[in-house]
């Protein structure tokens, strides 16, 4: 393939099979969805559909070209015996902000007794619970993310918590760490925006989402390649803190929900333009929509359980309600009080798209 853009179009039959399946039990399950939900999901394979676009590959550096993967249809997702799903005993998503993190080598068995980090886990040493020196602003930002996740993963509403703990709680379905430190899982890898593991732990970085990252103003690179000892994290001191803009919030919401989607068992989408597409670089990540395609939407609904129209209305409410409780910090003293209006300008197109989906659902 040349560097010219290529549109990946699947046939109506292929998309319909990927969404509904040929398995009679799964077909029957699909037919039990209400008429509005079926009508919206069926947009996936309608020839003149204007809600769900095909994937456009811009160059060979894009994820789908440089990382060949087998596609995952709904039947493969549903029958995956290794997939983890929320249950009454493990149904809470925890979001933890950290300023120090390391990723272990592949094959790491889990949490280390030495209190170093676990594979893609968060080190218990040095956790501060903020994204940087602006603690109150950071807390408010985390609450925006928490509110967005409550709407996006609507079936787990009221079960997504920002927290600061050393160990994984027993009721945790997953823990997602957020950091301003640039992430490199291995020396041989390019950076990653985020990464998740089958152990229900994920992490993602805001580092490359700030406008100053690629300029001389960025100070988030490490002083030395490795800490001098397992307890020395001084190389992470004074790392980069970007300005909390609408674009930063959108990018953060996008990556956070993408990674939690992986923890729920959704693989990279290769069917339609979708949040669950992989991305190799920021430009590609920005092209990826905030919404999941109908095939991934059915996977998400199956894993969590939600009414689609209620989920979309919750997302609209999150965008519209700039002063809701989710966005208000709780400072320790009045001198620390900071009120930041939630910057949602970058979400306006997303909101209009959701309204169109609600119209199809309620037709």
TrEMBL record:
Keywords, alphabetical: Hydrolase, Metal-binding, Metalloprotease, Protease, Zinc
Cofactors required: Zn(2+)
Highest taxon above the source species: Eukaryota
Similarity field: Belongs to the peptidase M54 family.
One Pfam family named in its UniProt record: Peptidase_M54
Upper classification of the organism: Eukaryota, Metazoa, Chordata, Craniata, Vertebrata
Protein name: Archaemetzincin-2
PANTHER family for this protein: ARCHAEMETZINCIN-2 (PTHR32205:SF5), ARCHAEMETZINCIN-2-RELATED (PTHR32205)
Organism whose genome encodes this protein: Apodemus speciosus
Function: Probable zinc metalloprotease.
């Amino acid at each position: 393939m040349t560097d010219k853009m290529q549109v990946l179009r699947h046939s109506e039959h292929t998309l319909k099979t990927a969404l509904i399946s040929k398995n009679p039990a799964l077909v029957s399950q699909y037919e039990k969805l209400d008429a509005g939900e079926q009508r919206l999901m069926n947009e996936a394979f309608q020839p003149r559909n204007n809600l769900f676009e095909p994937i456009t590959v811009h160059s060979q550096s894009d994820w789908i070209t440089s990382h060949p993967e087998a596609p995952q249809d709904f039947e493969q997702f549903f029958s995956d015996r290794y997939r983890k799903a929320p249950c009454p005993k493990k149904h809470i998503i925890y979001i933890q902000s950290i300023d120090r993190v390391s990723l272990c080598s592949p094959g790491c068995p889990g949490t280390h007794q030495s209190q170093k980090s676990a594979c893609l886990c968060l080190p218990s040493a040095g956790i501060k619970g903020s994204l940087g020196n602006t603690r109150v602003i950071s807390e408010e930002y985390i609450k925006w993310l928490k509110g967005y996740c409550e709407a996006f993963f609507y079936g787990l509403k009221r079960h997504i918590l920002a927290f600061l703990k050393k160990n994984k709680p027993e009721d945790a379905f997953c823990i997602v760490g957020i950091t301003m430190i640039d992430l490199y899982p291995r020396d041989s890898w390019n950076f990653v925006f985020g990464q998740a593991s089958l152990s229900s732990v994920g992490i993602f970085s805001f580092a490359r989402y700030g406008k100053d990252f690629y300029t001389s103003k960025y100070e988030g690179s490490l002083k030395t390649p490795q800490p001098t000892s397992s307890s020395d994290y001084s190389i992470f001191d004074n790392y980069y803190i970007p300005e909390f803009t609408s674009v930063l919030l959108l990018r953060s919401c996008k990556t956070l929900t993408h990674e939690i989607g992986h923890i729920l068992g959704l693989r990279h989408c290769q069917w339609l333009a979708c949040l669950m597409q992989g991305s190799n670089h920021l430009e590609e990540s920005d092209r990826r929509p905030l919404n999941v395609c109908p095939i991934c939407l059915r996977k998400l609904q199956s894993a969590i359980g939600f009414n689609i129209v209620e989920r979309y209305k919750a997302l609209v409410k999150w965008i519209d309600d700039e002063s809701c409780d989710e966005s208000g910090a709780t400072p320790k003293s009045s001198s620390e009080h900071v009120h930041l209006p939630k910057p949602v300008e970058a979400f306006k197109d997303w909101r209009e798209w959701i309204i169109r989906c609600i119209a199809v659902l309620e037709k």
